[in-house]
Specification:
single chain; 7-stranded mixed β-sheet; two-stranded antiparallel sheet; Arc Repressor Mutant, subunit A; 14 helices; alpha/beta; Rossmann fold; globular
């Protein structure tokens, strides 16, 4: 008797095979992510970077690891395409391109830290199951601490590559104002990487980061001190509707507006806090406006994270408008128009982000 109850006369074998290949690829990627994270923590990728062909024994010696584990790990990396294997010499090599992805911590495409995020999602699976059944929210601070670390480290490099060089120059006149000196609010600043990047680039301006997650604010303060910008950066525990009493020349929302339970209230508060000639920089996950236009690997990543983290947090805050991480430009623009802003413009975009300029 068949174990499959589905009417097999309706099954297209080629479609089934294609789906199984995809499922096995996803499963392989899940296993591989653990291997990448371990390689990052042990310094295995770094030890290979620029070293040329290297044997498992040599790599084990350089990293003070057990050779048998290192050899198996190397084979997993070679099977995944993250290192090259040379059969003639039985050696392994990290190409410059591979090094950018797995070894260079300052590279804009460095990926190992991103694996903290699905790790935290697995650890929080039971919370998500309860949330699905009850409709309750899960606040950012109620997730495993690997989430905040992973998000902060992953976005740091993306912001480092684009924020100063591309996104701020795409805003009309803002770079000149920052150079002259204005007050800036970074709402939902997390570990403070975006705030610190701006403070390093524009020493005449003053920067204030706000976040509801106290542990992230503590981390942001440490990062600012390490970067040497604590004299012009402050971080405070505050929400998106109760921060600061200044008139800000620039208010930034970096990948956080969609996490808020009431983004329209956040936009209204920003309007009252913004200087008359001020600008808002809103960076959001890239999305088209229609679901059928978002059926891509990047959108799958965002929809999944949105299910576990973004929507869950917005619901925990009351969820009057749960945008999700794939809101799209039209829905985002409507939020600001309802808050009284007349000017909403797509200033730039990347495969991962929409960058909006918002003014009165």
């Amino acid at each position: 008797m068949s174990m499959i109850s589905t009417d097999q006369t309706r099954i297209d074998p080629s479609k089934l095979d294609a789906l199984l290949v995809r499922a096995l690829g996803d499963l392989s990627a899940g296993y591989g992510g653990v291997m990448i994270s371990i390689g990052n923590k042990l310094g295995l990728f770094k030890a290979m970077s620029g070293a040329g062909p290297i044997s498992s024994r040599e790599l084990a010696a350089r990293t003070r690891c057990a050779e048998r584990y290192v050899r198996e790990w190397l084979n997993a990396q070679a099977a995944g395409g993250y290192v090259d294997y040379h059969a003639v010499s039985d050696t392994y090599e990290l190409s410059p391109e591979q090094a950018m992805v797995v070894a260079d911590e300052d590279s804009p495409v460095f990926m190992p830290n991103a694996w903290h995020i699905p790790a935290s999602m697995w650890l929080d699976e039971e919370k998500a199951v309860v949330a699905f059944r009850t409709g309750a929210g899960v606040a950012w601070g109620d997730h495993h601490d690997r989430l905040a670390c992973g998000v902060g480290a992953f976005y740091r490099n993306a912001y480092r590559a684009s924020l100063i060089a591309e996104w701020l120059p795409a805003l009309d006149g803002v770079v000149g104002q920052l150079e002259a000196g204005i007050t800036v609010a970074d709402v939902g600043c997390g570990h403070g990487y975006s705030t610190i990047l701006m403070a390093e680039a524009f020493p005449r301006s003053r920067f204030h980061g706000f976040d509801t997650h106290a542990e992230s604010i503590d981390a942001a303060r440490r990062h600012a001190a390490e970067a040497g910008v604590a004299d012009r950066v402050t971080f405070e525990v505050a929400g998106a509707t109760d921060y600061g009493d200044s008139r800000y020349g620039l208010i930034c929302f970096f990948d956080c507006l969609h996490d808020l339970g009431d983004p329209e209230a956040a936009a209204r508060h920003a309007r009252t806090a913004l200087a008359r000639d001020g600008t808002m920089l809103v960076v959001e996950p890239f999305a088209n406006d229609r679901i059928e236009e978002n059926l891509t690997p990047v959108a799958r990543l965002y929809y999944s994270a949105s299910t576990m983290v973004c929507c869950a947090h917005a619901i925990s805050e009351g969820g009057s408008l749960v945008l999700g991480a794939q809101a799209g430009e039209a829905r985002l623009a409507e939020v600001f128009r309802k808050a009284g802003f007349a000017h909403v413009r797509r200033a730039a975009e990347t495969p991962f982000n929409l960058i909006l300029e918002v003014r009165r």
